[in-house]
Amino acid sequence: MTSQAYQRLLSDSLITLIWRNSFPMIGAILALFSYDLLESSLMALSDANTLTALGFTLPITTAMTAFAIATSISCNNTAVKSACQQGKCLSLAISRSLVKANVAIIIFTLLLLACSGLLLNLLGNSSWLSSLAPEQQALFLSEQSSYLNTRYLGWVFLAIIWQSNGILRAIGLTHIASKLMISWITVKAFLAIILLSPDSSYFISSMYGASLTHAISDFTFALASIAVLHHKIKLKKPSLTELKETEDKAKTTSSLIVMQQLITPISIGVITIIALSVEPSLVAAFAIIFRIEALLLLLPMVLTTSMPAIVGINYWSGHQQRANQAIMIAFITIMIMQACISIILLNQENLLSVWICPQDEVSKHLENYLMWLPWGYLGTGCALVYQSCLNAKGKVLQATILAVSHRIILLLPLAFIGVQIDINIGIFQGLMLGHLGAGILSLLLFYKHLQKKGANKAMAIQAKSS
């Protein structure tokens, strides 16, 4: 990071700074989430069973992406902190974090390859397959296995893309990070349209085609991302001794960040089981819903890429009040934007649900989802951004508690209770209340932090005057 970019983060208007750092990532994050929805919609053109088969793999692939993002957050935090405290060692610190992160990814890849079938069965996949004809059982199990095995083997490439992107953003190269991500998703979308469209002359059975799409694009852009990163900061080969030099606090921090990211796929897995207890078509619906959710949370997701650098650098440089002001601006912006999106969707749920998925048994669930859940995203957006800011300030334990409270303690019991009350819309109402509860919790934690800071400041002034 140049000294000029560093000074801008400490002195420029916060609104201007947040806009300038966030705007380049809007297109990238929009493209990323639009691809997920495109992939699900293309698979829905085949039949509802294909979408259901994908739905059972979703908690696993989401966990993989979450772990990759966790290593990206760790690399991002390392880059931010090194830029503030030991700028001369930035290249070595980043290189060391990249090597450690990807060794962990490779170890977990081997574990997932060994446990893939068991994980699918835990999610209720075998129960669903038993309801199909024998030839369909063999077909979908084969497709699921092939899809997951290919995704496992390409996991390290996906992780490298996310890690490189996080580091580039941390050192002020947001525009380059954005261009890389948009290019990656554009190539992936192009391949998906060619391989997954039933009318295409290159059409491959949906899940096989999807796995091939991920493998080709992830491998290509992992190489491109490392090349760009090396060009900008001259990566160094860390010695074995340097790799072993990890503080106990850093190990704990990394473990907690990984835990935070894995909470979401665990929550998705339990929601999938709850959905299966209603009917298989609801599992198919959630295969699309989890992709729409990310798209509707575009602004908070963009802010999670820009706010850690703004908040982290100000916090670690001693400008805590400025860091808190940035968080307040983010909260207000999120609540206004998410409320507007919910109002817009209020009278469009029928049209959108049919457009996203032509299968009637799935579109009815999407209609209920669009009616209720977007209101809950006012809370989700605040929780996501506050969690990322807590990580940037080194308060990783608080961020983990917030994530567990949101995705496990609030969402899951309320979703289960909702299904017992109303089998049609109860799950969506329960999830909405859980998301709103997480937002309220985030605001309370932030308010408590401001009160504590104010009390400490008053005590310091009193001590100084005496």
TrEMBL record:
Keywords: Cell membrane, Membrane, Transmembrane, Transmembrane helix, Transport. It comes from the Bacteria. One of its GO terms (molecular function) is xenobiotic transmembrane transporter activity. It comes from Litorilituus sediminis. It is a multi-pass membrane protein. It is found in: Cell membrane. This is MATE family efflux transporter. The keyword RNA-binding does not apply. The chain crosses the membrane at residues 21-38, 58-80, 101-123, 152-168, 180-196, 208-229, 266-289, 295-315, 327-346, 369-387, 399-421, 427-447. The keyword Glycosyltransferase does not apply. InterPro entries: MATE_fam, Membrane_Transporter-Flippase. GO terms for cellular component: plasma membrane. Its main location: membrane.
